[in-house]
Amino acid sequence: QVRLVESGGGLMQPGESLQLSCVAFGSIFSVSDMGWYRQAPGHERELVAIITSHGSTNYADSVKGRFTISRDNAKNTVYLQMNGLKPEDTAVYYCHNELYNYWGQGAQVTVSS
Fold this sequence. Notes:
Layout: E1 3-7, E2 10-12, E3 18-25, E4 34-39, E5 46-51, E6 57-59, E7 67-72, E8 77-82, E9 91-97, E10 102-103, E11 107-111
Parallel strand pairs: 2-11
Antiparallel strand pairs: 1-3, 3-8, 4-5, 4-9, 5-6, 7-8, 9-10, 9-11
């Protein structure tokens, strides 16, 4: 059984930075591509960033240059470093195991002045 647990969400002001973490339990983490998605109220869930098992990354245009996805296979953890936060980044952020199609429970990120 695969379980993903996110942490690090919070209430932030525009321009601030925040790092989300996602720990994977019970999965073959090192061979799994991992993704971060987000869902804002009234919007569909969208891909934010993805990192392959080999470390290649891809980002949504809206976060390029501001967000960085990374992984630590020794810790079964994937990170999302978010810099220069904007109010439009407000959403619930979900970790996703692309191989097993498992989702975490979500972490709320709110950006407001």
